[in-house]
Write a structure and sequence with these properties.
Length: 113
């Protein structure tokens, strides 16, 4: 996903035909060591394609996938009712909370992972 995002950033910047160096430059600017095989794969798959048309085509495919239907409404109502008792218990949780050292500010998730 990070390679595709870098490719899109390059094309949005006005370069219709990004190179591996362009993608690697963007990834390295945020501290990511680019995998040359993945960069090559992205470039091969998108070579000669209009990015706007590709996104539009993908959006049509996503729209055809089934999404959550009426069954999702019932759990939402149950969650609303369940939230009321939780609000009464909240002050207890605040008292028990201890400060933990901030060892990993991003909780193990990187922006482009």
């Amino acid at each position: 996903m990070r390679y595709l995002a870098a490719y899109l950033l390059v094309t949005i910047g006005g370069n219709a035909n990004p190179t591996a160096a362009d993608i690697e430059k963007i990834l390295s600017s945020v501290g990511i060591d680019a995998d040359k095989n993945r960069v090559k794969l992205v470039l091969e798959k998108l070579k000669g394609k209009n990015i706007e048309a590709t996104i539009a085509e993908g959006s049509k495919k996503l729209a055809s996938l089934p999404a959550a239907g009426p069954a999702a409404a019932a759990p939402a109502a149950a969650a609303k009712d369940a939230a009321k008792p939780a609000a009464k218990e909240e002050p207890k949780k605040k008292e028990e909370k201890k400060e933990e050292p901030e060892e990993d500010d991003d909780m193990g998730f990187g922006l482009f992972d």
